[in-house]
């Protein structure tokens, strides 16, 4: 018999001491909280009425599933998801994350003095995370600075996997997109104006190249106003593409436009970016090759001489391809009830005892006592009501909180504990079925990699312990709260500032 108190307002929900609203979005509210069991600051995101539109619910399902399957220090991780009182009637979900302090968009926007070591360290982590997801046959499809989290020590993480897709070897090569894919400024040229395309991991490599260029020059490289303008900006720098490269562009009108374009010569990157280190420009040119076949894979890019002295191949793990069974739902038309059941099944992954009941077919469909979600509903309603009375938003508020919240780097001890927990689950899985055993083995392997990478000595070549002044963190991006006395400081006092690259 399960422990009743675990599900009451004195159990699961009381683990988190909610503090205040730190972000709002079109379908969610983010609150900062303290995990009373560990003392950690966390972000809890309430997503409202998620089944109102099946497409939105499917995107949430896709993201929470991928974040469960992708265990890597360069990818945001979910800590917990609250168990709803009724698996057949719930409308909201509450997802718990550790806090990250900012995102790359804010880092670039508020810092005009980033140093070469920063550029190198950021790009290395991005490519390392990309290698991991690409070897698992996952394509992110929406990489941009706002979807990359940043911490005080310049740790970065990929987030917002709602538009990601898993590719399978026997799947059709033409992928039809019914949702928005890749913000235009970071969209690969072969995708411009296209809603159907044969796509490869090279689309993510292009996006990383655009992000890297933005780090180097402090502003977007290709800020196109529309598809035609986007192609103009790209060809102004890279020159007119070859006929073979044009043939790989998915949209017919875009192909005709490129074919009729006056011939342009490419601008040497050294002339376009005269202040940038030559080794950085060489890898940038590789990432921004017009033809996707000319772009390196993430693994090939990690071997570039640009990372000499920083790269450590042992800390650049691959991932086994994700099982097709995990994403079988992508192949069929789903109702809101279908997606609700699939999301509930994902939530149970964070509630092992309830998962056992579910797999045995004895899952309770309703709780006659308050669930943790019931308490959270009251607390969030109170917070939002108080937040609405503020004439001016606090600097902590993050209004663009459409993606899942920001999470900080796990400590090695925390990750090690996860490995120990998974060891016991591995033996249980062996009794149940070969499929569960394989899934458990993959999770345990991923956690071992995470421990090794967290303990790694991989740092910028300067050997610094921190690249970002931790006492000057901007508190506007779902970060841990600062004292009231700091809230009245001048804007300069909360601006993100990177510390000098020096030995400490």
UniProtKB/TrEMBL annotation:
InterPro entries xref list: Kinase-like_dom_sf, MAP_kinase_CS, MAPK, Prot_kinase_dom, Protein_kinase_ATP_BS
Record: residues binding ATP: 46
Annotated region (Disordered), positions in chain: 385-404
Enzyme Commission (EC) number: 2.7.11.24
Domain of life of the source: Eukaryota
Family: Belongs to the protein kinase superfamily. CMGC Ser/Thr protein kinase family. MAP kinase subfamily.
Reaction(s) this enzyme catalyzes, per UniProt: L-seryl-[protein] + ATP = O-phospho-L-seryl-[protein] + ADP + H(+); L-threonyl-[protein] + ATP = O-phospho-L-threonyl-[protein] + ADP + H(+)
Bias kind Basic and acidic residues: ranges: 385-394
Keyword Lipid metabolism: no
Top class in the EC scheme: transferase
Annotated source species: Dovyalis caffra
Coiled coil: none
Protein kinase domain location: 16-307
Keyword Nucleotide-binding applies: yes
PANTHER family: MITOGEN-ACTIVATED PROTEIN KINASE
Keywords, alphabetical: ATP-binding, Kinase, Nucleotide-binding, Phosphoprotein, Serine/threonine-protein kinase, Transferase
Entry protein name: mitogen-activated protein kinase
Gene Ontology MF terms: ATP binding; MAP kinase activity
Pfam families referenced in this protein's UniProt entry, alphabetically: Pkinase (PF00069)
